[in-house]
Design brief:
heterodimer, A: mainly alpha, 9 helices, 0% strand, globular, B: 167 residues, alpha+beta, 5-stranded antiparallel β-sheet, 41% helix
Chain lengths: 193, 167
Amino acid sequence: MKEYVLLMVSAALVNNVILARFLGLCSFMGVTTRIDTAVGMGMATTFVITVSSMADWAVQTFLLEPFSLGYLRTVTFILVIAAAVQFTEMTVKKVSPPLFQMLGIYLPLITTNCAVLGVALLLVEGRMSFISSTLFAFASAIGYSLVMVMFAGLRERLALVDVPRLFAGPPIGFIVASLLALAFMGFSGMSTS
Amino acid sequence: MINPADNTTDFSAPSMNEGIAHVVAVDGAVAWLEPEQTGSCGGCAASGSCGAKGIGTMASRLEYRRFQIDNEANLFVGERVVIGIPDNALIKASITAYAIPLATLLLAGALAQWRFGSDLVTMAAMVAGLVLGLGFSRVGAGWLLMQGDLAPRFLRRARPGETCNQS
């Protein structure tokens, strides 16, 4: 149990997808103008990362490894991620058309989110069991969503303050992101004892 | 100087995400609206007005996003209107669509791993948990729909030249 908790804390905070691994930066800057859109994107990404990591683990374990097809890993994972996004889109549409109308926009954006592929490649490199890899992917996605929502909150506050003209807009956003990354570096000093 | 409008503002009313749409058809008491193209993601009523969706022409994407509202304001075809959804509607919808299936998926996986300790059984349990969660999501979405939380609402007619960023 302790092993799983450490794995999840490490994936979500210490090795945060955005602020430590620098993955998914385009959505980090692009979809964080409002908290609710950041939550929508974060939830959709969490769902897709978790589902696609399950599929990626199965493909890696039962197809790529036994047949020595490791060189096809990246291409295969991209295909799996696209299929997972399509599956999610079809499912949400089937489950509730109004929900799909409201949330559908985030799904195609996730296909090109490098954080999804990055997490899949990381969990394969880690040679984890199925449950560990799923929890690792889920926690990584939670870390991604957490940072998205925090940054969206900061940007909403930034929109109300008087920023010097040269720094207004994306420049002050990048400065705030770097300060947030510095703050997250503090998690690397955590001890388990 | 006191603005007279300040005295009439209803601060207890729920705040809305606003967006602009134009009326493409009127069918009795119902008006069909198409969201206007916008350049920034999430700027206007979330997905309803974003043009970055999917593959295909802009027209086909917007047509795909048509929605209907009650035509209580006697709208006519070609009119531009400001529509809104409650601020927290997107969060409620996200939780319903994604958090519930994820929770059941992880719960089923954790239980299977604790009980059997086999990757294959855990995988099957997670898939079953996902399907179960999607069923719960369907029920939750139906409830939200009944409450009217997901439905866009007519707010006012758009001023000439008004864009979603100015609304």
